[in-house]
Amino acid sequence: MSTLFYFILTIGVLVSFHEFGHFWVARRAGVKVLRFSVGFGKVLWSYQKAPDATEYVISAIPLGGYVKMVDEREGEVKSEDLPYAFNRQKLSARSAIVAAGPIFNLILAVALFWVVLVAGEEGSKPILGKIDAGTIAAEAGLLEGDEFMAVNDQPTPTWTETLNVFVGAALDGDQEIKVLVKDRQGREEVRWIKMADGDIADPEKLYKRLGFNPWMPKLRPVIDKVLPDSVALAAGLKSGDLLLSADGASIDEWAQWVDYVKSHPGQKIEVEIERGGARQSLAITPKVVQTPSAIEGEAPKAEGKIGASVFIPEEVKKSLTATYSLGALEAVPAAFVKTYEYSYSTLKMMGKMVLGQASVKNLSGPISIAQYAGESADIGFVHFLRFIALVSVSLGVLNLLPIPVLDGGHLLFFGLEAVKGRPLSEKSQMVFQQIGIAILLTLMTLGMVMDIQRLFQ
After folding, report:
1. Helices 381-400 and 366-379, interaxial angle, to 10°?
2. Which among 19, 121, 147, 161 is annotated as catalytic?
3. Rounded to whole angstroms, what are the CA distances from 318 to 123, 125, 178, 315, 386?
4. CA separation, residue 287 to residues 262, 332, 457 (Å)
5. What angle do CA 415, 421, 424 make, to 5 degrees?
6. Which of 77-91, 116-130, 154-168, 197-211 comes out lowest in average pLDDT?
7. Which end of the chain is more exposed for a tag (fewer CB within 10 A), N or C?
8. pTM for this structure?
9. Annotation marks residue 274 as catalytic
């Protein structure tokens, strides 16, 4: 239920801000607004100050919203309202009204990134763990215990920042990426990460190819969280359980258990645990998950997963955690830069998918967005704000694409009107809108398919 709540909250905030952009500029341009709706379908709540005033509505389906303006193309307009009709406004005014929605989403992203930067964001220090043979990390000569200090001269205080910079560089087509690392003795050295043309095509393969396994200290094999609908939960594992042995072999640290589970996909494991001072025996069969190989051209391999995490003592967490924050003034340009970088990366990835240079696995649908909303909220409020900012960037960029039925499509029509000196015919606009609807339905279907595949994987 919490996942659904945060999903609705995220969509509600983004849609409200988007539609408020249209509404606010329309009112400033002198256009009469009949209805401001968050959501579609059956009206759940409405408010109207006077019969001739704007009606504010919350509707049942929270996947969007709309601003209904006086417009002769949508029905008969009273003579006294004609000067306030959208279709009778100057081209510049109509363009500003349409562009305001996605622009307000980008403004919201800037504001949220500013809050995140000032409040400070916690994350794991980018310290490398075990380096697998055949990975990009191994080829670059990186060693276990190396900590990333900067990538392409950009500071990388956390794993999130580190991976974001790597993905951005890969999208830009950088063949060599400069990394500054600090080894266990505190010495700083420059390494060069060499990327291949196809590394960015599939995000799963990219992360596997990089081989950036986070470093973890030796931990007692104590269960912390057990995921819902996991094989760990079905087998009876609970938070606080101490793992003693697997198939008779002693388990002394968490890494042993992880390796054993990975190497036994779909195979029953007899586990002995200690719970409340008493020993118990359980049987657990790890779920089979296909993971991409780190070696180019090698087929994916099956690994076992159970859906449980290890308990990490507070003092260990603190030693592995970094906080990144900026002052209020310093954060202003940084927030604009982040919004620009994510907007550019989104456009770049879309372009690569259209050209077949990137996998459609990069698409996310409502199921993934709901999951990410719940997960980010569980991590903390600042992480949740960052997530909303990222989705706001995506929504703003997507709506500015020149696809009919989207805001960018309307702006395209206005551009053609400016060139021709008159609007496109209604018949032409209808044809283009049908094409736009087909494109959007295709994207939505692909997003849903990718979501369902992720659920089963």
Report:
1. 150
2. 19
3. 10, 10, 28, 5, 22
4. 9, 46, 9
5. 65
6. 197-211
7. N
8. 0.80
9. no
